[in-house]
Amino acid sequence: MSFRRLWRQFVNVLMLSLTGLCALSTVSVLLFILGYLLWYGGKSLNWAFFVNLPVPVGEKGGGMANAIVGSGKLLLLASLLGVPIGLLGGIYLGEFGGRTFSFVVRYTTDLLNGVPSIVMGIFAYTIIVLPMKHFSTFAGGMALGVMMIPIAVRTTEESLRAVPVTLREGALALGTSKWKTIATVVMPAAMRGIVTGIMLTLARVAGETAPLLFTAFSNRFWSPGWNQPIASLPVMIYTYAIAPYDDWHRQAWAAGLILLGLVLVANVGARFLVSRRISFRFS
Amino acid sequence: MVMKTSDESRPTERAAGATASWPPDIKMRAADLDFYYGGRQALYSISLQVPRERITALIGPSGCGKTTFLRVLNRMYETVPHARPDGEVLLDGEDIFSLDVVNLRRRVGMVFQKPNPFPKSIFDNIAYGLRINGMARRGALSEAVEKSLKRAALWEEVKDQLHKSAYALSGGQQQRLCIARALAVEPEVLLLDEPCSALDPIATAKIEELLFNLKDSCTMVIVTHNMQQAARTADYTGFFLLGRLIEFNKTAVIFKTPARKETEDYITGRFG
Amino acid sequence: MANTPITARRTRLPPRVRQYILKLQHGDEVAHLITLLAAASIVVVTMMLVYQLYSNSAMPRHKFGFEFFLGRTWDPVSGDFGALPFIYGTVVSSFLALLVAVPLGVGAAIFLSELAPTAISNSLEFVIELLAAVPSVIYGLLGIFVLIPILRTTVMPFLKATLGFLPFFKGPIYGVSMLAGGLVLAIMIVPFIISVSREVLLAVPVEQREAALGLGATKWESTWQVVVPFARVGIMASVFLALARALGETMAVTMVIGNDPSIKASLFAPAYSIAAVIANEFTEATGDLYLQSLIELGLVLFLLTIVINGLARLVIIATVQKGATQG
Prior knowledge:
The complex is a heterotrimer.
Chain A lengths: L1 H43 L2 H5 L13 H32 L2 H16 L2 H16 L4 H26 L2 H8 L5 H29 L26 H10 L3 H37 L1
Helix pairs in contact in A: 1-10, 3-6, 3-8, 4-6, 5-6, 6-8, 7-8, 8-10, 9-10
Chain B lengths: L25 E12 L2 E12 L3 E5 L6 H8 L9 E9 L2 E2 L5 H7 E4 L10 H11 L5 H14 L3 H4 L12 H14 L4 E5 L7 H14 L4 E5 L3 H7 L2 E6 L2 E7 H6 L4 H7 L5
Parallel strand pairs in B: 3-8, 3-9, 6-7, 7-8
Antiparallel strand pairs in B: 1-2, 1-4, 4-5, 9-10
Helix pairs in contact in B: 3-4, 3-6, 4-6
Chain C lengths: L5 H7 L2 H12 L1 H28 L2 H7 L9 E2 L4 E2 L2 H32 L2 H16 L2 H28 L14 H25 L3 H9 L4 H12 L1 H17 L2 H6 L17 H8 L6 H39 L1
Antiparallel strand pairs in C: 1-2
Helix pairs in contact in C: 4-14, 5-8, 5-11, 6-8, 8-11, 9-10, 11-14, 13-14
């Protein structure tokens, strides 16, 4: 009897400690990633990295200025496509939608969200790169833009639903039409949640490599306009990491640090925005 | 093509099928009004007349349909799917169901049970209705805001902090702000759905006083759980029970010499 | 206009139409239309996606038919394309990832939901969500420069020495391998399993735990025998979702898996996943058959993830319904 109890106690402590170990190891991985990147990436960061273009192998002082700008341009293009459609689609689902069509839209949005990023790249390739017969910033931006839509739709719809009915009724009771109520009362109240969602989805597509591999491709120079291939941070990291040159590895770490830094800042910032909003409500 | 609807001083339009003469002392009338939430009937054959420039109270136990009826008067039920009325409701002789709902809601304002100011400043809350309806130009806006706040007995307390957030006000102040906001668009009728139920007695007293002072320029219909409040403030009272209007008369009559037994039972606290 | 008797105009149109015209004037219908178009465009884009994948893989579908999925050779030179090595690589690496990530993830979720005080649970959860946000290529970077060397110099020789009699741990050690691919995937999907499982576990009613503890069970027994089974379905759903994610992962996998289209039993051997081969060979594909074969692989991947996601959703719907009837 007593032995059984001891055994059960032992199992109890053992298993619970194991679960703690699981949690600890998962968290350690992130801290390890951060630390490693900070160390190796930090060592390789210099001013040249930010302002110089890539140079031929063997030469010193190469940078990734074009990739930084490139990622910026791609994200801009992606937002131009993803944000309006995501926002308006979310407003449709949250404010106007009829039952069956809303179901279809939601299902399709979830489907789109689950599409592997490489398949998204194939899609952009078939509808933009093939007809244009060359890689372009435009194709890359479109691929990323389509990837932004599902999350933008979902956060917009959820943020709109979170606005209390009583606020809407207050506006309607003053003789406001439905769309004006949405535009002047509901949207402003939902704005924090929506902005958070957009920040998060931007952070996600900023780190995407696969869809760019055969749409925007890459480039070792500046890419003016929208019709040429363009370099981007993730693709550069990939290209440099698998290459056999130490200097390129160095730069890959630096780029990795920049990319991870941006992504984490966006995520933490978004979280911070949301939590502030909750405390504001209760004051 | 702009639909012109009558303004408050010209009760001359007639809806098809309405009675030929519209009594001048009546503002709104419901005739044989049923109401359904989907398959469930919530109101049965309600017929009552809301007197002009008086306070009418609707009393009754929880779930008796008084709030449902109130929300028909400014077609607020339309935000709920599967809710539909069946019957006639007239505003100055016009069928409200054929009017432009947006304009109807400007003419028939509403104050809700829980104060619901917008997440904006005090000034912007009041100005909102004015701006939306295009009712005041820049210079006139401050004047209109001041006027509404005075009518709602809130001006003295907030005149120096118009740009603070509405949420900084106390519950009672927020409710008076909502009243001011509703008054800003100069409604002909003001519907109040248990406006004091979330407030303390002092705040309640302040609101009852301002309602009394508003009577001369505004017809009011107030739903209340509080019989004493109805007795104190209302000129006319209607007693609702289980979706039916049991009795409607001058307040003094309802409370002193009710005609129906159900009314008497409710008044004397035998139930509800 | 102002003098037209309004009554006359009013009686001409039926009330519904009149209300509709009024709504139109207020701009509500326009707003409805604009948002509807945006929502419809999402549906259209998705349909286009499926169509493009299908129509641009016509050549290999006609040439190989069903044999495509059974073919073991991927030879661009001779024009013989078989998908089996990639299906094998994708499935095995994902399965391996689940093998590692599920116990780790569920364990961590149990810790966070049952043991840790709320503040610690929430802050750790925050950290884990950040893990989910790390881009794939960064995992790949660390995979190449940290994981592979560790595997090559320490872990794999150890496994070979101790478990070398098993077919999984035989053969030459390169570093890049199926094992590396599976491990990297495991790290990437663990955050999802933890987040969803933690939520599901937290949702288990307190009464369940109290019932077990009241009968004299230890904390672990109450957790493992009562709480986890109660949340079993939600945890399964999280596993499905993680699996769908793992199947589509491209960059980290292609950087560590070795990119060798052969089917071997050993986990030390390099392999190739569907996403990895598309990423590597798409831009160098000469000839339509080659390109379209890669696209057909993309179609396969797409269908796989739809099925898994669909299963996950079915599982969730089944739970909700079961919960509704039970509650």
